[in-house]
Amino acid sequence: MSATQASFKFLSFTGKFRILHLSWFAFFLTFVVWFSHAPLMASIRDTFDLTEQQVKILFILNVALTIPSRIIIGMLVDNFGPRKVYSSLLFFSSFICMFFAFAKSFETLAIARFMLGFVGAGFVIGIRMISEWFPAKQVGLAEGIYGGWGNFGSAAAAMLLPTLALFYGGDDGWRYAVATTGVLIFIYAFVYFFSVTDTPEGSTYFKPNKTGGLEVTSKGDFYFYLVMNIPLYAALAVLTWKLTTLGLLSDIIASMIYVSLVCIYAFQTYKIHHVNAHIFKEDVPEIHRYKFKQVAILDLAYMVTFGSELAVVSMLPLFFLDTFDISQIAAGMLASGFAFMNLVARPTGGWFSDKLGRKKTLIITLCGLAVGYFIMSQINSAWAIPVAVIVTMCCSFFVQSGEGAVFAVVPLVQRRLTGQIAGMAGAYGNVGAVCFLTVLSFVTPEIFFLVIAGAAIFTLIAVMFLDEPQGSMAEVLPDGTVQMIDVE
Question: 67-90 burial by CB neighbour count: b if 16+ within 10 A, else e?
Answer without folding.
Answer: bbbbbebbbbbbeebbbbbbbbbb
